Amino acid sequence: MKTNETGVLKKSDLYFSTPSQTAMNLFYYPISAGHFYCNSKYHVKRKSFDSILITYIISGSITFVQNNKTFMAKKSETVILDCFHPHEYFANGNTEQIWVHINGQNSVAFYNEIIKNEGNIIRASDSKHIEKLLFKIYENLSPSNTASEITLSLDIYKILAELLNPLHVSKKNNASYEDNMQDAKKYIIEHLSEKLTVQNVADIIHMSPSHFSRIFKQQTGFSPYDFILISRLNKAKDFLQKTNLSISQIAYEVGFNSESNFIYFFTKNTGLSPTKFRKLAF
Question: What three-state secondary structure class fits 91?
Answer without folding.
Answer: strand
